[in-house]
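User:
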Amino acid sequence: MKSYTSVSVTEAVLKQMDGTEDERLKTIVQSAIRHLHAFARDVNLTPAEWLKAIEFFTRVGKTCTATRQEFILLSDVVGLSTLVNTLHDATATEDATATSLLGPFFREDAPPLPLGAQISNNDKSEEILLWGAVLSASGDAIPNAKLMVWQTSSSGVYDLQEGNGNAIDYRGTFHTDAAGEYHLRTVRPLGYFIPMDGPVGDLVRAQRREGCRPAHIHFLISAPGFRELVTALYFPDRYLETDVVFGASPELVVKEEARDPEAPVKNLPSVHFDFTLARAGSVDIAGGRVGADPTKLS
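Assistant: Predicted structure:
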């Protein structure tokens, strides 16, 4: 029998894990143990604080449902999601449109819609047009590229947050035409508070943070032979600099035109944005989505 010290216990745990056959699992878990133990030593973690953390993570788990992913939200607000996203971006073989976060409100079942359709079923206030093209890094059009689009309502709420979360609204799945072009109608999104009624909200308030996201519209774009693009278009907003999930970037802030003569639909305010996809590589096999449909994780 050994008597463990605050240092020797770390080495004992790591040694017990030496037999792990999956080398990637071994690398990840052993590194996590080293950092976790070092953190506890660094802050001189007390038993009461340890238990408080256990209670917090238990609450996070209990808050997760088929329409709400509190663990993804937690990852977002501590910047881990953006960190993982930037690490994945660094593996791309070509320059492409800047990425953003998938977020905790993505869902796979966005309805298929024809080009030009409105993605809002009920809310037609402040209608705007989004249009442009999906291109390769060399500037060639990508026909039949798939665009999944989702956003909040004009009051700053996702469909998953309304009622029992079963109704689908403010979402659509489109495909580019033969020229690689797309256009769709929607309503102007609104900046909003992340869900503040759970443990993540409690943490954000304790840190004296606003808990707000700037107005944006999500895009998940894919095409055979190309790297899947998870991104979002951001509208000028007071929360761009203080985005609570660190998802906004200057390359993705768009300019709205009151009347653009080149827009495919006239007499509507419009946003023109061309997306660029990088060619797929071997590292894309496992996917690069930092987020998931909450119904697939509950």
